[in-house]
Amino acid sequence: MKVKTIFFALAALTCSLLNACNDEGDTEKPVIDLIKPEKGAYLAIGGEHGVHFEMKLSDNDALNSYRVQIHDAFDGHDHQKTRSDDPEPFFYDSVFTDIHGQRNANVHHHAIMIPEGVTEGNYHMEVYCTDISGNQAYVFRNILLGHEEEDDHDD
After folding, report:
1. CA 44 to CA 42: how far, in whole Å?
2. Domain ranges in the chain?
């Protein structure tokens, strides 16, 4: 009986030590709640107002940055280049670090401008958020760019 007790005690101690050594720190991804633009949103080309961008970010430890990318979806999601005689597709890629060190952040801005001369059509918007441990989450939206005025310019 003593041998079994000692064996189980050593096995439990070994498992505890192995779990303590395998602690990799923070592995939890940040949480993104993208409020605007909504899925399928229509965004005006050449408007005087930037895109109404609004989201809530949170992390169990601390946020580091977020990245917004918009690119065309003209090719059925395989990301081939458009022909050289096609109008210029819109491309946007920017990293924002104003949330660094915060656990929760409410982001609201109109920094994304869509200039005249870009091609109307279907686009993808991708928003990535990285925490200070390097964990990353992302959300994806299909959006439409066009020349009519956008209805929603509220703050």
Report:
1. 7
2. 26-146
Q: Cα 65 vs. chain centroid, distance in angstroms?
A: 10
Fold of domain 26-146: Immunoglobulin-like (2.60.40)
What residues contact 79, with CB distance under 8 A and at least 6 apart?
A: 71
Q: What digits encode the pLDDT tens for the residues 68-109?
A: 999 998 765 444 444 445 568 999 999 999 999 999 999 999
C-alpha of 57 from chain center: 10
Q: Which amino acid is at 20?
A: A
pTM equals 0.73
Cβ neighbours of 29 (radius 10 Å): 16
- β-bridge partners, 98: none
